[in-house]
Amino acid sequence: MTRILAISDIHGELELLEELLIKVKFDATQDKLFLLGDYIDRGPASCGVLNIVAELQATGARVLMGNHEALMLKACRLGTPKAWNHWAAVNGGDATLASYGYHMEDFEDAILTNTLPSYIQTLPKLEEHLQLIETFETYIELEDAIFVHGGVVPGVALADTDPLRLLWVREEFHTGYKGEKTVIFGHTQTYELHKDPTNYDVYFGDNNIIGIDGGAVFGGRLHALEWPNRQIISVESKNPTTLE
């Protein structure tokens, strides 16, 4: 049987991603790989992660957008100070810019002159990755499961749901989902779902939801979920922290 492997919330942790792909013995000719979003921000190597994501997509991986990719896309394409600061100053985009060799100050003149989108188009690797992000899907639906970044909106068909809700929804989904299909998602770190600041294990909810964001960038773990047998393969952060 073909394995389906799901990974989410890498957040610039390139070494952990490379280690995990080796540990799961990923084979693009044999396995189906689903990446569930948040490849960038906060961690040290977002550019490198997106390079690998592009390679994986080219060999058949299905790649979903996370809320952080949506923030980056809005900031760079819209170019308003509000959107830029929300991404770069508040949500870890400064670390992403650093991974391309830039500093936030490098973009100040373009923001002040309302030319940020056109300026970014002159930066080859950054523009290449923005175009990559624009190809990302928002969910994957199988006969027995739904793979999504944030979750689903209870009572609303996937096709009728605002795509941004699929990237951002949390509590409403965590407590309100009652569907027959298992929903595999990232976005919310599993220690929050377990209500235990030391528990980065994959979260198996009683209501048919499985959270796989192990908080890798915060000192936790990067998980791969093997579907449908629900086997978990994980790698540990090299910089463990405590959230207590």
What can you see in these coordinates?
The protein is of the alpha/beta class and 244 residues long. It folds into two domains: 4-66 and 136-236, Purple Acid Phosphatase, chain A, domain 2 (4-Layer Sandwich); 69-133, no CATH class. The protein is built from eleven helices and ten strands. The chain has helices at residues 14-23, 46-58, 67-78, 81-90, 93-99, 108-112, 116-120, 124-133, 163-168, 171-176, 190-194; strands at 4-7, 32-35, 62-63, 139-141, 145-148, 182-185, 203-204, 209-211, 221-227, 231-236. The strands form two sheets. A five-stranded mixed beta sheet has the order 3-2-1-9-10, with helices on one face. The protein has a five-stranded mixed beta sheet with strand order 4-5-6-8-7. Helix 2 (46-58) packs across helix 8, helix 3 (67-78) packs across helix 4 (81-90) and helix 4 crosses helix 5. The radius of gyration is 18 Å and the shape is globular. It starts with a strand and ends in an 8-residue tail after the last strand.
Pick out the low-confidence regions.
none
Number of helices: 11
Q: What is the C-level CATH assignment of the largest domain?
A: Alpha Beta
Question: What does the average pLDDT come to?
Answer: 96
**Major sheet strand order:** 3-2-1-9-10
Largest sheet: 5 strands, mixed
- In terms of structural class, how would the helical and strand content be classed? alpha/beta
Q: Would you give the CATH topology of the largest domain? A: Purple Acid Phosphatase, chain A, domain 2
| SSE order, one letter for each helix or strand | EHEHEHHHHHHEEHHEHEEEE
What's the gyration radius in Å?
18 Å
Strand content: 15-25%
Number of beta-strand segments: 10
Which word captures the global form?
globular
Which architecture of the largest domain per CATH? 4-Layer Sandwich
CATH superfamily of the largest domain: Metallo-dependent phosphatases
What is the number of independent domains?
A: 2
- Distance between the terminal alpha carbons, to the nearest Å? 42 Å
Residues in helices, as a percent range? 25-40%
